[in-house]
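Can't paste images in this forum, so I'm doing it all in text. The chain is below; anyone willing to post the predicted structure tokens underneath?
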Amino acid sequence: MTDNPRVLVVDDEERFRANLARMVALEGLEVRALAGGREALAILAEEPFDVVILDLRMPDMNGLQVLTEIKKLRPETEVIILTGHASLDAAMDIIRLGGYDYLLAPWKT
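Text version of the structure:
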């Protein structure tokens, strides 16, 4: 294992997930990309990640449910929620549940 920060990208949209993982890897970070919340929680139960970049809307579990479980499993893991659907209520819930940040997609790089 390297000393680079480990990032877990969780998004049900394959193309977006792959592109985001590629961008993270180009920054020199260790990255793994998964399609859903249940899969992410199974991996997090087995191994630590420093950061999880998490989609808010996914079919198997929504991002708030996954965030809640991540904070139970790995409270030290920072979680950044991505969404294309702006909502003040969701932003407040994310912060209340321990999310690090809330970003609207698409964003400019």
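Helices lie at 14-26, 37-46, 63-73, 88-96. Residues 9 and 33 are 5 Å apart (CA to CA).
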